[in-house]
Design a protein that fits this description.
This protein is mainly α and about 150 residues long. The chain has seven helices and two strands; from the N terminus they run αααααααββ. It is a lipid-anchor; GPI-anchor. It comes from Hyaloscypha hepaticicola.
């Protein structure tokens, strides 16, 4: 009886493991450029079990288009990361890739790509005036510009 219980526990944990790792996070987002891929990896590793979702992977997100394309909290977190870490052009690029991948695989993108772009652009760091330097009087010194 003990070996049957052990076998069932092992089978159960293997099943949960295979559901949670339906894909490989290291390669799942390989169609994205490096910085955008890094944001997907980062958000996945830090938030895949804390973001609100209706996926069926023991309360966590499933590494599958059927889950990710339809989870607004995931799409929002990734768009914000891409805006913060990769910049404005990457936000637009990533939204296009996400929309294409979801549609290609037969799933709706629950947050329209234009909204993802807006979310990502809102997260792009704003340059401060003090970080801009201008040349002054040919002395080789740099000063902050004045208005």
């Amino acid at each position: 009886m003990k070996s049957l219980t052990s076998h069932l526990l092992l089978l159960g944990s293997s099943l949960i493991s295979s559901v949670l790792s339906a894909g490989n996070p290291a390669t799942f987002w390989s169609d994205y450029p490096t910085c955008e891929d890094a944001c997907h990896q980062s958000v996945w590793s830090s938030q895949s079990c804390t973001l609100s979702n209706s996926c069926s992977c023991a309360g966590c997100l499933c590494l599958a288009d059927s889950c990710l394309c339809e989870t607004s909290s995931w799409l929002t977190a990734v768009a914000q990361c891409i805006g913060e870490q990769c910049g404005a052009s990457a936000v637009s690029d990533a939204a296009g890739i996400a929309a294409s991948a979801c549609v290609k695989n037969g799933y709706p993108l629950v947050v329209p790509s234009a909204s993802l772009v807006s979310i990502g652009l809102a997260a792009v760091p704003v340059a401060t005036g003090g970080s801009v330097a201008t040349a002054s009087g040919g002395t080789g010194e740099f000063q902050n510009p004045t208005c």
